[in-house]
């Protein structure tokens, strides 16, 4: 059995790409994170000022930084606190690397199935990014709102979700999202083929074994098994006219 070198080369290429492309990817995805953060901030006393990539004084390497303001009440003119959510760019690119590496390296039956994976994988990936990176960036704002509200236990559901992501939840969600995308796209492609093929298709036509293709030897002619079983047998030589 030949080893599939694809499963060895893809992780190597992904790790090399992640080491060099983490900062450019975070800078490229920052506008999307900003837009999603503004959507999630609606209905809450939060104001998203910016999402950008910069350096960190407390840790080496670049970080993705979200700057926001929290008000105690919606009617307040001045914000009560200014919060900054930070993530290392190496953590930001972790989910995209795992998701797309697994999705593209998984064997496919043909180009149609790969195109279906890409078409379905884009919205799944965008939801994955919103549920991981954006939620972690918004966690400090949720904590500040709980403190301003006088909550005796300011550990919110945002904090629990952020801890889950830091404890390996990012990797688990990326793998699960890729596997779900692969399964659903394969199901959609198979259902499409079954819906298109039934009548009039080449596989469902009856083939007359007595007819020979012009220019081809009868033994070389490909005949579906189901079609051969449905065709009547040849009459004996004595009964021929």
Description:
By secondary structure, the chain is mostly helical. The protein has six helices and three strands. Strands 1-2-3 form a three-stranded antiparallel β-sheet. It is elongated and about 60 Å long. The model is unreliable at 203-207 and 212-234 (pLDDT under 50).
How would you summarize this macromolecular structure in one to three sentences?
With 241 residues, the protein is mainly α. The protein has helices spanning 6-41, 89-92, 94-105, 111-148, 157-196, 225-230, and strands spanning 46-55, 62-70, 81-88.
Attribute tags:
elongated; 56% helix; 6 helices; 241 residues; mainly alpha; three-stranded antiparallel sheet; single chain
Topology (elements, then pairings):
Elements: H1 6-41, E1 46-55, E2 62-70, E3 81-88, H2 89-92, H3 94-105, H4 111-148, H5 157-196, H6 225-230
Antiparallel strand pairs: 1-2, 2-3
Largest sheet: 3 strands, antiparallel
Give the spatial strand order of the biggest sheet.
1-2-3
Number of helices in the DSSP assignment? 6
Helix content: 55-70%
Mean residue pLDDT:
79
Q: How many strands appear in the DSSP assignment?
A: 3
Structural class, by secondary structure, is mainly alpha
Along the chain, the helix and strand elements come as: HEEEHHHHH
**Radius of gyration over C-alpha positions, nearest whole angstrom:** 29 Å
Cα distance, first to last residue? 55 Å
Estimate what percentage of residues fall within beta strands.
5-15%
Outline, from the CA principal axes? elongated
Stretches where pLDDT falls below 50 for ≥5 residues? 203-207, 212-234
